[in-house]
Design goal:
There is one protein chain. The protein has 14 helices and 15 strands. By secondary structure, it is α/β, with parallel strands linked by helices. Strands 2-10-9-8-7-3-4 form a seven-stranded mixed beta sheet, sandwiched between helices. A four-stranded antiparallel beta sheet has the order 11-12-15-14. Strands 1-13 form a two-stranded parallel ribbon. The model has no long low-confidence stretch (mean pLDDT 97).
Length: 391
């Protein structure tokens, strides 16, 4: 195997949030969206070379940086990006916060589709805006969009922004072209700007296709802002490099100003070199990663079907974050997560932190060597196998 994703890398006591934030060393962390795999060798090589230069002053990304971003999205998604559209920043969450600041005033509304990535809520609240939930429909074990409710929410004159998660975290959905077009048409009709968080776009599994929102039509391109980063794809979150793609000049100028006001308009030299190496040379590694992640998903499904059949595994179309329906247990998601932490020594995310519709679920990160995944699943089994006889 060219890339050894089975290798267990010691991350404890390395200043790692995922592992070192735990109260004790016997806790297995399967919570935050951070992979336990080494980044591609080409990225490591580029960082070593950069470190050897020995000078790490303020950075202005080179033409190679922009070419890498433009090349990656052009080759993989047919998304033809112009250099002037790109604004760099430290991460997608700071990007979203700055964009909301640029496009709203306190008291205005931002629409989100819950259950959804919890940092959306803080980005909205921190800008003094109102969170409006367009709750996804959970039916027959999967999620779909309540378009009637979305139309109602978007038609409110106070609704200014629709914050789209595409692919969706934690539901694991890859939105179809038809779904995206319908959402886009609603937003155009009601003059609501779309912020499309596409940070997980590279982690889409076979049989599904990520379609950048901005490629749907020229009108939708001009009415949208796309947030991207190599961080989830290549495990580079700590290097703080993300991009905002804003085709409309007026919107872009507002965002640029907000980035400076929020003081998130800098990027570090290692992030620049890592992005260039990853986007230019990391494709082969990514394909191997996706195969391993999907095999982890299949392993989890088989384990749960055999050992914990009362738990429902929501189909995973993208990301490495599995959404598990524990509703048959009859406990709150907080109770389940606390029980797993306190008695199982397993750290997961409780579903209720993702807003409406998340109650009764937990989110499990499967981006780890299979031995660790099996260990985590056995921790769940040890605590909840008795429910096999109760439900």
């Amino acid at each position: 195997m060219k890339y050894n994703f089975d290798e267990i890398i010691q991350r404890r006591n390395t200043g790692c949030t995922k592992w070192d934030a735990a109260a004790s060393d016997d806790i297995l962390p399967m919570w935050v969206a951070d992979m336990d795999f080494r980044t591609p060798p080409v990225v490591v090589e580029s960082l070593v070379s950069r470190a050897q230069h020995g000078v790490f002053g303020y950075v202005r990304p080179s033409a190679a940086y922009y070419d890498a971003v433009i090349g990656w999205f052009g080759r993989n998604y047919g998304f033809d990006i112009e250099k002037k559209w790109i604004l760099y920043t430290t991460g997608v969450v700071p990007a979203i916060s700055a964009i909301i600041r640029a496009l709203t005033v306190p008291g205005e509304q931002v629409i989100v589709q819950t259950p959804v990535y919890h940092c959306f809520f803080s980005s909205i609240r921190n800008n003094g805006c109102e969170i409006v939930e367009n709750e996804l429909i959970y039916k027959d074990g999967t999620y779909s969009i309540d378009f009637d409710d979305l139309e109602k929410k978007a038609s409110d004159p106070n609704a200014k922004v629709f914050l789209l998660c595409s692919p969706h975290n934690p539901a694991g959905r890859v939105w179809t072209k038809e779904e995206l077009l319908r959402m886009g048409e609603l937003c155009l009709r009601h003059r609501v700007t779309v912020i499309s968080d596409e940070i997980h776009c590279d982690l889409v599994f076979a049989g599904y296709q990520h379609i950048p929102f901005a490629t749907l039509s020229e009108e939708m391109r001009q009415n949208s802002v796309t947030c991207t980063a190599p961080s989830k794809t290549f495990n580079l979150a700590g290097l703080h490099a993300a991009n905002i793609i804003a085709p409309d000049e007026t919107i872009r100028q507002k965002i640029d100003k907000a980035l400076n006001i929020n003081e998130v308009c800098e990027i570090n030299p290692f992030g620049v070199d890592a992005l260039i190496a990853a986007y230019n040379e990391g494709g082969e590694w990514l394909e191997a990663l996706k195969t391993y992640l999907y095999d982890n998903y299949l392993f989890l499904k088989e384990f749960i079907a055999k050992e914990l059949p009362f738990i429902y595994v929501v189909p995973l179309e993208a990301t490495y974050l599995v959404w598990l329906d524990f509703s048959a247990v009859g406990q709150s998601s907080r109770t389940i997560a606390d029980n797993l932490m306190d008695n199982g020594r397993l750290w997961v995310n409780r579903g209720s932190m993702y807003g409406s519709g998340g109650e009764g679920f937990i989110r499990l990160n499967i981006a780890c060597p299979r031995a660790l995944l099996e260990q985590g699943l056995n921790k769940i089994k040890n605590l909840y196998s008795s429910f096999n006889h109760q439900v």
